[in-house]
Structure formats: C-alpha cells, structure tokens
Amino acid sequence: MASLASAFPILPGKMEQWKHFCQEMVGPRHSEYEASRKRLGVTREAAYLQQTPQGDMAIVYMEAQDISRVFEGFGRSQVPFDVWFREQVKEIHGLDLSQPLPGPFPEAIVDWRAS
User: Fold this and answer.
1) Are 93 and 10 in contact (CB under 8 A)?
2) Which domain holds residue 59?
3) Alpha-carbon gap, residue 64 to 43, rounded angstroms
4) Does some domain include residue 61?
5) pLDDT tens, 46-94?
6) Is pLDDT above 90 for 103?
7) Residue 65 resides in a domain
8) The CATH number of the domain where 85 resides is what?
9) What is the pTM of this model?
10) pLDDT at 101
C-alpha cells in the first residue's frame, strides 16, 4: 500500500469555501465522495487544516495501491462528482488536477508502524 502526505495552500479568501467543500464531502455528497474514492482505488484519505503565519494549508493524507493512478483518475474522470471536486481544488488551492502535478510526489522520510 502506497501513501502520500502533501500540503496544499488555501488561497487567500478561500477558507470558508474550503470548509464548505470539506463539509459537502462528509455530508450531502458523502456517497458520491465514497464512490469516487473507491473507483480511483483510494483506501484512506484525511484532510487537516494547518494554520501558519505564512497562510493556511490543507494537509492531505492518502493511501492507495497506486497513487499515480489516483491522480491520473482525478485528472481525466468525467463523473460529475469528480469534475466538481477538480473545480473546487482549482478554485481553493490553485491546483489544476487535469494537468500533471508540478513536480514529483512528496518523499516519505520516516514511516514507522507498530509491529
């Protein structure tokens, strides 16, 4: 199982939209969100808010068999929920998931698990 943790800046003035976006995924759009993640091969996803002097960040943690496949799926899916998700990410974070990510995935430096 592969994992990814990444920080995505929340653009100035977009905090309320980000909170609403998150509430939609755990509320009214939860079944669509769950179906999307299953379809893309995601087995776990969590989002955290990190407030810093440089601005607010969304910290996203994800587990999947193939993280690259997940992001390719985000980019090309025409399922209405995935299109909505992509639009929200672009508006809130300035990240266009329909394009290749600007750089490599984050590198895990320490990954300890209880045995």
Assistant:
1) yes
2) 2-93
3) 5
4) yes
5) 999 999 999 999 999 999 999 999 999 999 999 999 999 999 999 999 9
6) no
7) yes
8) 3.30.70.1090
9) 0.93
10) 84
